[in-house]
Amino acid sequence: MITEIAQIDVKPGSEADFEAAVAKAREAFGRSKGFCGFELHKSIEKPQRYRLMVKWQTLENHTVDFRGSENFTEWRGLVGGFFAAPPDVEHTETVLTSQA
Amino acid sequence: MITEIAQIDVKPGSEADFEAAVAKAREAFGRSKGFCGFELHKSIEKPQRYRLMVKWQTLENHTVDFRGSENFTEWRGLVGGFFAAPPDVEHTETVLTSQA
């Protein structure tokens, strides 16, 4: 499993609408091959900055399957208008964990 | 609960030693007030880039309690020598989740 980390800066004042649009986009993600769940994080220091952390079974489930699908078109249709700039997207593998 | 996201670029060739040092630092985090666990993520696109995602009960558990403690000194003693630059640290709140 890999994590997609999308750093998204939204237009000032659009925060609540953006969050509602991401909630609506749950269905599009839920239909997507290899989707394992997401968390939407809001920055404390930069209140217009979000990070969408999406778990996928494989890298290709995001870069090929999702981006080539109608689910991606639906996602961008819901949230794209709130972006202040193109999202900065990176993928990671979890190499170590620690429990409290 | 909040998430500390520390973006850490390490010196080329030090990846394995850095990961071993983070494993050793589990104890220092485990002793820290408000610590709820961490994940170490390694970037797929930039193999010298890591993100340490640390869950804390409150922002102050990281910024005040941890940074002012001997646990922080121990952490930096273990990993600081591998840093290619000062880490870029941000804090987030989770505003939305979606399960597969």
Question: Which terms summarize this structure?
Answer:
100 residues, Antibiotic biosynthesis monooxygenase (chains A, B), Dimeric_a/b-barrel (chains A, B), alpha+beta, Alpha-Beta Plaits, globular, four-stranded antiparallel beta sheet, homodimer
Could you describe the 3D structure shown?
Helix content of chain A is 33%, strand content 37%. By secondary structure, the first copy, chain A, is α+β, with helices and mostly antiparallel strands. The first copy, chain A, has one domain (2-92): Alpha-Beta Plaits (2-Layer Sandwich). Chain A has a four-stranded antiparallel sheet. In chain A, strand 2 and strand 3 form a beta hairpin. The longest helix of chain A is centred in the first third of the chain and has 10 residues, at 15-24. The two termini of chain A are 23 Å apart. The mean pLDDT of chain A is 97.
Distance between the termini of chain A: 23 Å
What's the number of domains of chain A?
Answer: 1
- Portion of residues in beta strands of chain A equals 35-45%
Q: Which regions of chain A are unreliable across 5 or more consecutive residues at pLDDT < 50? A: none
The shape of chain A, in one word, is globular
Number-wise, the strands of chain A total 4
Oligomeric state as shown? homodimer
Instruction: Classify the fold: give the CATH topology of chain A.
Output: Alpha-Beta Plaits
Largest sheet of chain A: 4 strands, antiparallel
**Which pair of chains has the greatest number of interface residues, and how are they split between the two chains?**
A-B, 37 and 37 residues
What is the strand arrangement across the widest sheet of chain A?
Answer: 2-3-1-4
User: Averaging pLDDT over every residue of chain A, what do you get?
Assistant: 97
The CATH architecture of chain A: 2-Layer Sandwich
Q: Can you count the helices of chain A?
A: 4
Rg estimate of chain A, integer Å: 14 Å
User: Briefly, what CATH class of chain A?
Assistant: Alpha Beta
What is the H-and-E element order of chain A?
EHHEEHHE
Percent range for helical residues of chain A?
Answer: 25-40%
Return the structural class of chain A. alpha+beta
